[in-house]
Amino acid sequence: YHNRIAALIQQRRLQILVHSYLYYHRNTNIISDQKWQEFAQQLVTLQKQHPEVAKQVIYAEAFADFDASTGFHLPYMDERIMSKGEHLLRLHQQEGGLL
Fold first, then answer.
1. Residue 95 and residue 24: Cα distance in Å, rounded?
2. pLDDT band at 99 (very low <50, low <70, confident <90, very high)
3. Where would I find the H helices in 1-99?
4. How far apart are CA 95 and CA 10, in angstroms?
5. For the chain, what is the mean pLDDT?
6. Among 22, 19, 21, which Cα is nearest to 43's?
7. What is the rounded CA–CA span in Å between residue 6 and residue 57?
8. Is 88 exposed, middle or buried (0-12, 13-18, 19+ CB in 10 A)?
């Protein structure tokens, strides 16, 4: 995106999806719950402050009512999301510890 806000909304959505996949599907995490909550709260704020931009960013429909309480209902079983999650999990296992 050429728009900095749109790029940040996309980044936070993808982070929420990947880490929700790891947490709910793989029963693990590579970031702390506090870090996930920071990402989620920032996303909620961005979407409220820039609703028209948020509607134009990938996964807009899935995040339309996102309130930062959970990622359980999100479409984290998308092939790209799962692939990224598996890649990050491998890196995490090689490095050890939370990111």
1. 22
2. low
3. 4-20, 33-49, 51-54, 79-95
4. 26
5. 95
6. 19
7. 6
8. middle
